[in-house]
Specification:
By secondary structure, the protein is mainly alpha-helical. It has one domain. It is about 60% helix and about 0% strand. α4 runs antiparallel to α5, α4 runs antiparallel to α7 and α12 packs antiparallel against α14. The radius of gyration is 23 Å and the shape is globular. Belongs to the CDP-alcohol phosphatidyltransferase class-I family. InterPro entries: CDP-OH_P_trans, CDP-OH_PTrfase_TM_dom, CDP_ALCOHOL_P_TRANSF_CS, CHOPT. GO terms for molecular function: diacylglycerol cholinephosphotransferase activity.
Length: about 425
């Protein structure tokens, strides 16, 4: 059972990556560094190996966070991790950004640029998104709160918008301020500041007017002295709103140029609204004591399961883009999460106790089972798609093709025949 229809496999040969980056920081500072950095990597290192290495660094950071704060109690003066942990998160994320930026350059150096790299790159980005939300929320002293949920929803929304836009325009567009460039560097700064201050994440509870020493300035001191972490969340909300209109403007321009309807693409935003709504419905179930998911150690595994389901969703979107296939409206994982959400909300819906999540132990079993099913579903998707693409195109995922005596790139596997089978 595969994910790519036989007729869509042929479109893999037609795919060519197109990207636009308008960031001055990227153009004048980061890109020169990335151009130098890629030269440090031997030509026998596959681009996907670089991408995976970056994700592994983030996974190490995430494991370190769970080691020092296993129950995720950072909110309002909870666990303060050693300073070096925050510094390592900053270094790990910066290296992830660098690895993510040079994998395409390495692909061009080794003649391995193609749809597989696009799929692998975006797949790692999708998983990194949720991991960074959890770690950054800990560093911001948000912890188990609806601010963290809002941060997860906003960050995933930005990723979905970018993928949705790329599907309709045929290119990855990064504006003068984008998540993969400036957004990541902002999070690196958050980690660094949390490591520098003795109070750790509690520093971010400082009021913005207090921090800027504006509490005695007339007129300005009439404004609310909002904590720095809450102010950062408000800034993020404006960022999402800006990205929505910017993405649609680019999609509308592309659709007009192609003579296609401009309103229809907006309907393809509904899958994200539905999936995020289901997760929020599960979290908002009418238990407000310490056993509620958002108030318990189940919060982190719940967010991880949500992130894996999202990675599966956008992975299918990217696959549709590189194979010129119809946009995926439906994801079967919605049914699983919807069952969990409905069961948890039965007291509010029909006035009876949940069928499965009747106590804290059962709720933990359901959440961890959801995490396991989400992981298996996404791992299965990645494995099957990689196998299908490599078998059809006659390439390998983590092996670099070699040059023959005439300087031409040789396939690492036998090339495919007209029916997609290896000759």
């Amino acid at each position: 059972m595969g994910f790519i229809p036989a007729d869509a496999l042929q479109n893999l040969h037609k795919y060519a990556y197109k990207g636009v980056d308008k960031s001055p920081l990227s153009k004048y500072v980061l890109n020169p560094f990335w151009t130098w950095f890629v030269t440090l990597w031997p030509l026998w290192v596959a681009p996907n190996t670089i991408t995976l290495s970056g994700l592994c660094l983030v996974l190490v950071n995430f494991a370190t966070l769970l080691w020092y704060d296993p129950t995720y109690l950072a909110e309002k003066g909870g666990v303060v991790m050693p300073s070096w942990v925050y510094f390592s998160c900053a270094i790990g994320l910066f290296l992830y950004q660098s690895f993510d930026a040079i994998d395409g350059k390495q692909a061009r150096r080794t003649g391995m640029a193609g749809p597989l790299g696009e799929m692998f790159d975006h797949g790692c980005d999708a998983m990194n998104t949720t991991l960074e939300v959890i770690m950054a929320s800990q560093a911001l002293n948000l912890g188990r709160s609806w601010w963290t949920v809002a941060s997860q929803m906003a960050t995933l929304a930005n990723f979905y918008l970018t993928t949705w836009e790329e599907y309709h325009t045929g290119e990855l567009y990064l504006g003068v301020f984008s998540g993969p460039v400036e957004g990541i560097l902002m999070i690196v700064s958050i980690y660094t500041i949390s490591g520098l201050y003795a109070a750790g994440p509690s520093f971010w509870d400082t009021g913005i007017l207090t921090f800027l020493r504006l509490t005695n300035v007339p007129v300005i001191n009439q404004l609310p002295d909002m904590p720095l972490n809450d102010s950062f969340m408000v800034f993020g909300a404006f960022g999402v709103a800006f990205n929505v209109q910017a993405s649609y403007r680019n999609v509308r321009r592309a659709r007009l140029a192609a003579g296609k309807p401009t309103v229809q693409p907006l309907m393809l935003l509904l899958p994200f609204v539905v999936s995020a709504g289901i997760q929020a419905l599960w979290l908002v179930h009418p238990r407000y004591d310490d056993s509620a998911i958002i108030n318990s150690p189940l919060f982190v595994p719940f967010l991880c399961a949500w992130g894996l389901q999202f990675a599966h969703q956008v992975g299918r979107m990217i696959l549709a883009h590189v194979t010129s296939s119809p946009f995926p409206w439906w994801d079967w994982m919605w049914v699983w999460s919807l069952c969990g959400a409905v069961d948890a909300n039965l007291p509010m819906l029909v006035g009876r106790a949940p069928i499965v999540q009747t106590n804290e132990t059962n709720r933990a079993v359901v959440v961890y089972l959801t995490l396991a099913v989400s992981f298996v579903a996404y791992a299965r998707f990645c494995t099957l798609v990689i196998n299908e693409i490599t078998n059809f195109m006659g390439i390998a995922c983590f092996t670099v093709r070699k040059k023959d005596k005439d300087g031409k790139w040789q396939e690492s596997l036998p090339s495919s025949g007209p029916n997609g089978k290896k000759e």
